[in-house]
Amino acid sequence: METYDVIIIGGGPAGVSAAIYAKRKLLRTILISKEIGGQVLLTNNIENYPGFVERSGIRLAEYFEQQLRELGVEIVEDAVREIRIEGDSFRAICEEGTEFLGKSVIATGGSSHRKLNVPGEDEFFGKGVYVCATCDAPLTKNKTVAVVGGGNAAFQSADLLARYANKVYLIHRRGVFSADGILVNRVKGHGNVEIMTNVAVREIKGKERVESILLESLESRRVFELPVQKIFIEIGKEVKAGYLKGLVQTNQHNQVIVDRLQRTSCRGIFAAGEITDLPYGQAIISAGQGAVAALAAFDYLSEKEGSG
Ligand SMILES: Cc1cc2nc3c(=O)[nH]c(=O)nc-3n(C[C@H](O)[C@H](O)[C@H](O)COP(=O)(O)OP(=O)(O)OC[C@H]3O[C@@H](n4cnc5c(N)ncnc54)[C@H](O)[C@@H]3O)c2cc1C
User: Fold this and answer.
1) Quick one: which of 47, 79, 69 has its CA closest to 60?
2) Does ligand 1 have an atom closer than 6 angstroms to the CB of 80?
3) Is 40 a pocket residue for ligand 1 (Cβ < 6 Å)?
4) Could you say which of 191, 212, 233 is where a domain stops?
5) Residues forming the active site
6) What is the extent of the structural domain holding 122?
């Protein structure tokens, strides 16, 4: 079986960027992912990726794939189920049964947003339902919006949205917040934010776009309708790092802990993008970290060869 210099897991901005840098360092590179683009495929409104002015996430993903193909990066359309250590190499075992050996691994499996699982959530995704305030806050100018959640992500979103929107409702199903107190106080300081606790979202309603949400008070069981034009769901993310279980250190959110060179606690395994404990989930940030991971993997392999 051929041994690759680097196995890249994931085809989002982090994985694509890692593959570009690895390939241009002449590393034998393989990228394993069911699709190219990752979360970028879920948006039609990317306005903050330098040099990319077409906005469509699908278009950006097409450029990603074109660049990989032009460079001759080997792409396997599959998902990695498990990574096993074999001597000083790593065996990637895929869902469809194929296996690949690599001297190093760059894990960029990303994350996905937790859903409310209520009617209207999928139907109005991108048409009033959003999951990333940093990405979409400018769309809320002079609008009435809701943020759902009680953690740091929800409060950071409310803090940002309060600067654009006319009115922000922060809706939380519990009576206490897990967000940092200082952040909660900052949000409470915005005159246009109203916090609603012990309230659950039951439905997102509208015709073409979101027009209102149906809420239920968990204390009185009263169901009522709140007119909003945008709703941001900020109830956490699920990190896609199961295949690294037991191999690398993670934090309480299952994010892979990395150092400033994207190195994990396991020598030879690097991680980049939203799979890591680094802040600010954004395409350009994942891409930057992917580049660092590939360069660090190159240095790791060079040192290993030099000492071997
Ligand atoms: C609706 C929406 C709008 C957004 N808008 C913007 C925006 O305007 N600007 C911006 O900068 N960012 C935006 N983002 C955020 C941005 O898309 C993410 O920060 C970025 O895509 C993260 O890149 P990543 O490579 O770390 O992970 P991801 O994009 O999550 O990619 C992970 C990749 O890993 C693959 N993968 C997962 N598990 C496995 C496995 N076991 N084996 C192999 N492959 C695997 C996935 O299929 C995927 O290809 C938006 C996100 C969403 C959801």
Assistant:
1) 47
2) yes
3) yes
4) 233
5) 132, 135-136
6) 115-233
